[in-house]
Amino acid sequence: ENEELNGSGESEELSGRVEKEELNGSGESEELSGNGESEELSGSRDNEELSGSSESEELSENRESVELSGRGENEELNGSGESEELSGSVENEELSGSGESEQLNGSRESEELSESRQSEELSGSGESEELRGSVESEELSVCGKSEELSVCG
Predict the structure, then answer these.
(1) What residue segments make up the domains of the chain, in order of their start?
(2) How far apart, in whole angstroms, are the C-alpha atoms of residue 131 and residue 79?
(3) Bias regions of kind Low complexity — which residues (predicted)?
(4) Three-class SS string for 103-123?
């Protein structure tokens, strides 16, 4: 009887633990699905930034407000005076000198500003140069925005 009770008791305890583990697993998966999107996408951000896929749009929805308000990208861009233009609608005029604004004003603005890494790269201006040479500037050149600003710049 002790063995039988131990067996059933252990199974109940294990079933309780398994349920907790399953719940923990599902909870972690949900947390990872929420936070992990940015992490998983941060691993492949370059491709997504250049492709402007829907995942970057999801990141722009989830992280744009966080990055714009929490990261203080404007503060990072204050060094070049871009933040004031970013806070307004004059991003094109301010950033037209380097062609970054169009990339930001295109599908890139939400993507660039949605990720803290992009804002850092923008503050270092290395990312914008790389992106100017990337498909992003080409896409905007098709729109004519980068062409107009390249003439102004």
Answers:
(1) 44-152
(2) 20
(3) 24-36, 75-107
(4) HHHHHHHHHHHHCHHHHHHHH
For the segment 76-122, what is each residue's pLDDT rounded down to a tens digit? 444 444 444 445 444 444 454 554 444 445 454 445 455 544 445 45
Task: Give the count of alpha carbons within 13 A of 74, CB side only.
Answer: 13
Coil, helix or strand at residue 5: helix
Residue of 71, 104, 94 lying closest to 153 (CA atoms): 94
Q: For residue range 6-53, what is the model confidence (pLDDT) as tens digits?
A: 555 544 545 444 444 445 444 444 444 444 444 444 444 444 445 444
Chain centre distance of CA 107: 12
Closest CA to 108 of 84, 140, 145, 133: 140
